[in-house]
Structures
1.
Amino acid sequence: MARITAGVATSHVPALGAAIDLGKTREPYWADCFAGYEWTRRWESEQAPDVIVLVYNDHASAFDMNVIPTFAIGCAERYVSADEGWGPRPVPDVIGHADLAWHIAQCCILDEFDMTIINDMAVDHGLTVPLSLMFGQPAQWPARIIPLAVNVVTYPPPSGNRCWLLGEAIARAVASFPEDLNVQIWGTGGMSHQLQGSRAGLINKPWDTAFLDRLTADPEALRGIPHIEYLREAGSEGIELVMWLIMRGALGPGARELHRHYHVPASNTAVGHIVLENG
Ligand code: DHB
Ligand code: FE
């Protein structure tokens, strides 16, 4: 049986990917930020997950105003790195797990979640930066990846509660897949960030810290946070945090915090990272 063993969440700030690609991670501006991922890099190499369901948002790379899927699941064999204006990031192609992805798509759709099925898609920093943070610069990514793209760019994004319920449905789907697979689920994006307008650079550490605390102390309370609270407290792009609730909803009520990291600034945002063991 496939089983979800852990959940990982991290910000996906593109500047972190550029720092890795350009060999700048030990520079004074970046060193402390990257130090917070060392624990996870060691832990991931011990865990050796077979498959990662990687929840992220596309930033007008694969989708634009022509097509805006609320929830899209990648069922392809392979995904290339998107060109976001500076050429594609120099990272390995992302290898999918088509059988499990189609199984999750089928289960979730029959479970009344209307997933969009994607068979051809370039993946942008939302997906590749978390891989680089957790795995560094390998010749091949050490796990197969199922991209799960969520619209958090164009109003209306899904509610946090809907994301949580989708996470629960993904967990049911994974548990009914007959192959013996160690599966992780990752949520990306956040934490506080507002990239534009008069509040650009907004950082709300107390709110971010409370969000991290509640992932284990009171996760049910996170389900009810309305969109307006994310915008007001964590900035306009803080809404990316609803994707962490897909990750959290896929874990059991007894999930345990193994590691946490919080760093300001990276670009003009707060970087948050947490590792949860399923339970
Ligand atoms: C930036 C972009 C993002 O998509 C994000 O999640 C955080 C930061 C940026 O451009 O700095
Ligand atoms: Fe983003």
2.
Amino acid sequence: MVTSPLPPKQLFFGRIAYTLSSRELFIHKRAAIGVDGFGIIAFLDDTVSSAEEAAEKYQFQDADVTLLSTSQFLFPGLIDTHIHASQYPNCGIGMDLPLLDWLYKYTFPLESSFSNLEFARDVYTTVVKTTLKHGTTTAAYFATLHLEATNLLSEICWKLGQRAFIGKVHWLSNAKADDQKVCMTTLAPNYYLEKSEEESLSSTRQSIEYIRKIDPQFSRISPIITPRFAPSCTASLLLELGNLAEKECLPIQTHLAENKRETELVKSLYPESSSYTDVYDKANILTKRTILAHAIHLDIEERDLIAKRGSGVSHCPASNCAISSGIARVKWLLEGGVKVGLGTDCSGGYSPSVLDAARQASQVSRLLPDPSKSRLSLAELLFLATLGGAQVCGIADRAGSFEPGKCWDAILVDIGEMDYWDDSSILQKWVFGGDDRHIKKVWVDGKLVHENL
Ligand code: GUN
Ligand code: FE
């Protein structure tokens, strides 16, 4: 039998930064990282003084060596915990309306076009290439309610090498007769709606099987159960989905308490629940691997319930500003023990960049009533963009930081003009002034998936 040789080991030497918690930002000026032939980090060592010394110490003499210049640094790949791949063509468009009107006027017409597979291929290829270029090594994607187009997105993520969670959206009308004015006319256009719970569940099962054929262990691309939000589901569909996630050991993503009118609507649609969060809890939707996008209008009981269930929040500050949703209290969530990561929420948000989401998170954190308590530090912002996101997606054992045993999901940043600045200033300049032009290389699972030289 002929066994194929392992890909070469890789050895990097230079400035290396990462977080290990929201309070711990490490910046090593001169350190070595070794990546084995399986794309796994073998060592990180800041005591060696050269690549040669590291190579000898770890028997990495046969590795491909990259020596970073003084204007470069390595950082863990960025994690987008909430992005609508299908809404990418609308980024920057339609920021004149709040959520429910925005969905009806701009979002559903666009999403309904994903019945056209050529259009879907074009948009999804652009989204994955663009987010990789911006350093997104993991993305949690909402697709649309179309099975074939969702399968295409899975195929494209697989081929282009991104780590991704891909969810076929569930979208039934939960409207009751007396809600029709609020709900049917503004929320559920008949051209973009699943016909029955059975159809909705069956196409999700098929999208799971499709991914299983491509990546049987769901090691890089994984299905994610995606009830759009409570108003687009019935209580029984939510429960079926909670049970399906448990049976298949799958993550879940949905929206929670983004907008005041939406939370009022949920109250009227689910009178038996004590809160919006309780609607999901009653349906077993709040798991350790559930991503709750926005989570703005919560009371303390809801926050504590989310923390108790171990679910995470995707903070989407650009979207929260653009469609006037409000300001999520990130420090308050973190202090309550809730996991938090960042989401671009394209196209509620206008930018596909997680770095931009970090910048916006910083800005809005200063606008809450007591900025001395709510302002996010540099370490917190960088944590949210990487390890925080990995915790929310349930992949902190694999991604989000540079610890031996984790996958080499990383970016090489070159911000230029570094000689004047200390290490912390370099990272601040990147967070507040950087963009995709500064991201020179991107790796996922040890493989180079984007290069901009
Ligand atoms: N709530 C339900 N659907 C959506 C969506 O597509 N975008 C945002 N921002 N919120 C939602
Ligand atoms: Fe969203």
